[in-house]
Amino acid sequence: MSSTSRTVPPTADVVIVGGGVMGTSIAFHLAEAGVHNIVVVERGELGSGSSGKPIGGVRAQFSEPLNIALGSRSLRAWQDFLQRPGADIRLDSVGYLFLLTSEQQAADFETGVHLQNSLGVPSRMIGPREAQQLCPYLSTDGLVAAAYSPTDGHARPGLAVQGYARAAARAGVVFAPHTAVTGLDTTGDRVTAVHTDHGRISCSTVICAAGAWSARIGAMAGVHLPVRPVRRQLAFTAPLAPPAPRIPFTIDFASTAYFHNSDDGLLFGLADPEQADGFDTTWTPDWLRLFRAAARRRAPALADMQTNDGWAGLYEVTPDHNALIGRSGTLPNFLYATGFSGHGFLQAPAVGEIMRDLHLDRTPFVDVTPLSADRFTAGAETRPEAHVV
């Protein structure tokens, strides 16, 4: 990328902290709208945090209307990404298939499907036999029902970060990788400067898109952003011969075990319920025994497949598994988009639009007031999301 810097500019109109898919989406949308003098500060390489995961799901199947709106808006943007901003993200619209093993799960998802349908999402409830036709690996034993939406799928977050960043750089955005934020200056009710290990940037606006590190950035400004880092791990099978059938992004909801196509094999994942908080991203393949135990019940052929590689990254988790999007009530020029709890990649295009509009004092396409970080301190109603993996 042409507009990268090892020494940061002394001044900027907007400093975005975080160069993952959220920070680059925000930079692209701001630059596209004519905002100048934008600097994106990233502690590692662009996309080296949570956005570095090899494959990211994209979906509009949620239980909460705001998440459905963010997912739907973003799905349309991902489908159009080749034209705007102009990059191939290897989008594969294979659908999401949630496997349900209790009557309560089925009832809850049926409620979700009705809500999704009312908002234009083509999801539907299906029976065990149709689920097995979509995903031949499945055993129908104990399977009560499934929820399926054909327009969901998966893409490559790293390619999305590069696509957004290249377009933003062409529009004049300066990227400062390998640059850590070390402090923020505030005067009265304003953030006035960002200190980094490569220099100080006087600025008019700061946008925190620092993912799992956002609580630290917020604390520098006295803004409470309740985000905790939690390691999530996945594994890749050895190349499969014959090749795997093309299957949906398939999730055993009770165990959180999931799998889908990946290049010449399959990708396996699972949210370990015993995983402690922390920034450690060491891949430890012992979590695979949890996946294999779930697979023996739900997709037996997967249980003994050889894996030859893996990856660990961080979820940025909030208390109600919903994002923090908004503007600080005490520092109006400190904005934030973080805490996506595993849904950041799939919501990034819509959130980029929203942050652009908040910065320009426009009305966003959806009211994100309920996602304010203040909901955890002001006694406001939280909005739990049920479709969490």
Low-confidence regions:
none
Encode the helix/strand succession as letters.
Answer: EHEEHEHEHEEHEEEEHEEEEHHEEEH
Derived structural class: alpha/beta
Number of β-strand runs = 18
Measured between the Cα atoms of the first and last residue, the distance is 34 Å
Largest beta-sheet characterization: 8 strands, mixed
Radius of gyration: 21 Å
Mean pLDDT: 94
Descriptive overview:
- This protein has helices at residues 21-32, 65-79, 103-118, 128-134, 157-170, 214-220, 288-298, 300-303, 344-359; strands spanning 11-17, 38-41, 56-58, 96-100, 124-126, 145-149, 153-155, 174-176, 181-187, 190-196, 199-208, 228-237, 249-252, 257-262, 265-270, 307-317, 324-327, 334-338.
- Strands 1, 2, 8, 9, 10, 11, 17 and 18 form an 8-stranded mixed sheet that branches.
- It has 9 helices and 18 strands.
- The chain is of the alpha/beta class and 389 residues long.
Write the layout of secondary structure elements.
Layout lengths: L10 E7 L3 H12 L5 E4 L14 E3 L6 H15 L16 E5 L2 H16 L5 E3 L1 H7 L10 E5 L3 E3 L1 H14 L3 E3 L4 E7 L2 E7 L2 E10 L5 H7 L7 E10 L11 E4 L4 E6 L2 E6 L17 H11 L1 H4 L3 E11 L6 E4 L6 E5 L5 H16 L30
